[in-house]
Amino acid sequence: MRRWIIMSSVIAVTLTLGMAFLPESRAANPFRVGTVDIQQILLESKAGKQAKAKVEAERDLRQKEITAKEEEVAKLQQDLGKQSSILSEAARKEKQDAIDRKVRDLKRIYDDFSRDLQKKEGELVRELLKELTALIRDYGKEKGYTLILERGQSGIVYGTEEIDLTKAIMALFDAKTK
User: Fold this and answer.
1) Distance, CA of 104 to chain centre
2) What is the Cα–Cα distance from 55 to 60, expressed in whole angstroms?
3) What gap in Å lies between CA 136 and CA 48, rounded to an integer?
């Protein structure tokens, strides 16, 4: 994925430079470049904050379930510790096996929870990116941009404030969010 980003950046820069030096291209079509920080929009926009809140609410709910099970296991271990001197070896082993099973179940629940949460977060981000990409594309066409590059991960080290479209795009994205 990172290699693809780097390659697309190199191609974009090459095309940009090539088009900038063609006199007939510049005369007929003014060359306009813009940048946008998609990561910033995902973190600071209304839709991004709503998605984050949704994931956090899900995480908090599931964490309560996990905490309750952890407390149950801790209580069983505490009870075993208190009763270990009066229990037979077979009874102690049986209780320890039951605790071990609960610990394995707890680990499985936690792993499933982590996987589900990552999946849900990924789906929400993909959905937001799909909307955001369409919005950026439409904005670029409407405003006559030749090229809009992603600031941050694309390798853009410098760009003037005039070509940074992040605030304008975020305002439009927020306006679309209910």
Assistant:
1) 29
2) 9
3) 16
Q: What is the pLDDT of residues 30-63, one digit of tens each?
A: 788 888 988 889 999 999 999 999 999 989 988 9
- For 162, how many CA atoms within 13 A lie in the half-sphere containing its CB? 3
- Residue 148 sits at φ, ψ, to 5 deg, of -125, 120
pLDDT tens profile 163-174:
878 888 888 888
Query: How far is 7 from 35, CA to CA, in rounded Å?
Result: 17
Contact (CB, 8 A) for 34 and 145: yes
Write down the pLDDT at residue 25.
46
Sign of the four-CA dihedral 147, 47, 39, 119: negative
Please tell me the pTM assigned to this model.
Answer: 0.66
Q: What is the DSSP string of 135-167?
A: HHHHHHHHHT-SEEEETTTT------GGGB-HH
**Residue 155, number of CB atoms within 10 A of its CB:** 15
- pLDDT, mean over the chain: 81
**Which tokens hold the place of 166?**
């992040």
47, exposed or middle or buried, with CB in 10 Å at 0-12, 13-18, 19+?
Answer: buried
3-state secondary structure of 177: coil
Cβ–Cβ contacts within 10 Å for residue 109, how many? 14
